[in-house]
Design goal:
The chain is mainly β. The chain has one domain: Immunoglobulin-like, CATH 2.60.40. About 5% of the residues lie in helices and about 35% in strands. The chain contains 1 helix and 10 strands. Strands 6-5-8-9 form a 4-stranded antiparallel beta sheet, with no helix packed on it. A 3-stranded antiparallel beta sheet has the order 1-2-3, with no helix packed on it. The protein has a 3-stranded mixed beta sheet with strand order 7-4-10, with no helix packed on it.
């Protein structure tokens, strides 16, 4: 089963048969899900970024470096916007750590842990102030792949 939530918070739940698909909204999302993926997303309001923390207790020491975290999954960010976006992971004290810049139509894949918050930001314009677009975090310990559509 895959639950994919795009920035507009459109969720789709699929079983192994496309005829059993159920939509939470009547709109058709721009990022169609893949039946072979199994995932869950926990979108979080951007205003809560200052309260978001990565919980280091969710994995063993150095699990990121060695790829041995027990609650890991892969998050794939797909940029459907007309402009580039920046991807940040939040550290244990809530600071942004730059991980990627994604051009329009591009994507970025990253091994991550269940509790790791990811912030998608639109680069600042005239005032040079970056604007958060969405925050993503794995919600399912057994998730293999999570796809975050940035629209």
């Amino acid at each position: 089963m895959l639950v994919r939530i795009c920035e507009r918070h459109t969720a789709i739940e699929l079983s192994s048969s496309p005829s059993n698909a159920s939509f939470t909204t009547p709109r058709r999302p721009k990022c169609p899900p893949t039946l072979t993926e199994r995932a869950a997303l926990a979108p979080i309001a951007c205003v809560l970024e200052s309260q978001m923390r990565w919980n280091p207790d969710d994995h063993e020491p150095n699990a990121y470096e060695h790829g041995t975290a027990t609650t890991k999954g892969t998050i794939v960010f797909t940029n459907r916007r007309k402009h580039s976006v920046l991807i940040y992971a939040l550290d244990p004290v809530g600071r942004r750590m730059h991980r990627a810049s994604i051009r329009p139509g591009g994507s970025f894949s990253q091994l991550t842990l269940r509790s790791q918050p990811w912030v998608v930001v639109e680069r600042g314009g005239i005032d040079f102030t970056d604007r958060p677009l969405s925050i993503w975090r794995l919600a399912d310990v057994d998730a293999a792949t999570v796809v975050a559509c940035i629209e």
